[in-house]
Amino acid sequence: MRQEYDNRNFGGDQEGLRSNEPYVRVAGDPALEALDALSAALGEITREQRELTERIDRLRQSRQDGMSWQEILSEEEPPGTMQVVSQMLARMSKASGTLRKELVDSLRAEGTSIPAIARMFGVTHQRVSNLLRRPPD
Fold it and tell me: Which of 31, 71, 122, 125 is most exposed, with the fewest beta carbons within 10 Å of its own?
C-alpha cells in the first residue's frame, strides 16, 4: 500500500504519529474499497428489504386468514422468507466485517494505538487485537 503525504501539516509531530498528522492519501486504499462494498451491499439489502416487507405482509395475512405456519411457509416460493432474512444479514455482516478489519489495519498503519482504535469502535482492545491478527478477507 503506497502512502503519499500532502504538503499540509495540521500541527502534528513529524517524529511521532498523531491524529493531527499531515493529510494522508492512499493509493489503492483497501478501506475505501470496503466502504464501496458496504455501500453496494446496502443497495442490495434495500431492494431485498422492499421485497421482504411485501412477503411479511403476505405471511401476516395468511396467518390471519387461519393458515398454519407449516402451510404458509411450505407454500412460499424459494428462497423462503427466513432464507432471505439470513442472506441479508450475512451480506451485511460480511461487508461490515471487511470494513471493520480494513479500518483497523489502516488506523494501525497510521500509528493509532490499539486502545485509541478500541475507543473509536466502541470495543475492547482485545477485540482490536483479534482483528489485527485476522487475515484479510
Answer: 122
